[in-house]
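Please think about what follows:
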Amino acid sequence: MSPINSFVNNTTMYRLMLYYLIFLVVVVSCLSFIRLLPYNGFHILGNAIYLSFVCWISNKILAKIQKVQTNLESALISGLILSLIFGPTNLLALSSFWIPAFAGTAAMASKYLIIWRGRHIFNPAAFGALASALILGQGASWWVGGLSIAPFILIGGFLILKKIRRFEMVGVFLISMTLLMVVITIFDGEPFNLFVWLHDQAAFLFVSPLAFFAIAMLVEPLTSPFRRSHQIVYAILVSFSFYLLGYLVPYSLEASLLIGNLFAYIVNGSFRQVLTLRKKEILSKDVIGFWFEPWKKFEFKPGQFLEWTLSHQHPDTRGVRRFFTIASSPAEDLVLLASKFYEKPSTFKQALMKLGPGDEIIASDLEGEFTLPNNLDTKLVFIAGGVGITPFRAMIKWILYNKQHRDVILLFYNKTKEDIVFEDIFKKAERFGLKTIYFNTDKGGHNDEKFINEKVPDFKERTFYISGPEPMVKIFEKMLGKMGLKKSQIKRDYFPGYSETYTT
């Protein structure tokens, strides 16, 4: 799985989705050429190119009018999704030419015209499809389904869900659809045959376009809920709306998603603003802190993170967006972004490094549940690897500001002593109950069960927070589970793409 993990971790969600959709277009075209699908392969390719162009040019024009930065990948993704649910049609026919153009333009318009506080509300492709159905009388045919296509949808979809960690949301959605189908079958008075039902259910969930809908549209991060609990409600709401609207309108799939988008917008709230760089700070030989002044001070909890957007020329596969923890506490006037820089940084980090005082960056989508418990008596263990210390820096500064006495043990892992950051803050927090233990991973050891028993003898009474490179987080999570800790006692926050090796 290592090459797969490396590919997924080092590719942005947008780029990965773009690859997935291009892959599906090529696959269904090839299957049509060899007559495994009853479509014209050239029509499929033509529709994909045409709708991608429509969305690209519409997006570019609207962005210029609104004087905002464009996102090429986002526009192409919407175009490709529309091509896989509209048609495939012969574009030489006048109706086949204008209907997709309208759907693509409406999809892009929804991103710029139906917004609130700088954030669009609806999934663009779903909105474009619904607008075409309501205004032109012709909606999506949802043709992207069938036994021969299903394996490719599911295999590629696995990578998408692995990237954005929303297996649970999709699982709840599919289970809800299943249970609702059982209820409807019973209430309709139809005879229930388990084997027939299982066959029909498998076809409905995996061979129909439903799997594609769940993977490519339901999970879109910007129009679905951030919090896990809200994602569960969202998945159930969309499935329930689908069946309810199915009795009323022929375009219930698109409409149910838009209803879910409204719910997501309400529970997510809206956060987007421009931050101005005020100063840089060298924290260690390869970690730099960037102190930004927000346009308007905002509320957040220590340990939460933001999506940072920094447009730059010729971005690499990791794109122009990153998720970074807010390393400052809510009590500080400036917002701290602290990041590690390797010898060959990504184009995003190169652009970040070039920022000077007065330059701006966009921050949005405040989220995260890796936060301090409300109960001050809860005993805690913070385990940090390298730059994974950032959420703990925010938490400990908050403890200092509020003079909170908490029983906290911080286990801070770095390659060498010179890599340690924020040591002065941790020293000040000792009088409020913090005990810090530093380790150099170059010397090995210090992360096995014997060590935890020695340094944290009451570990079964504590809640563990683990933050750092994904391999490290998984090692500690697995080890603590074997030691008898409940899942509720282990909170994790890992950083994909950081691949330092940690061994037990």
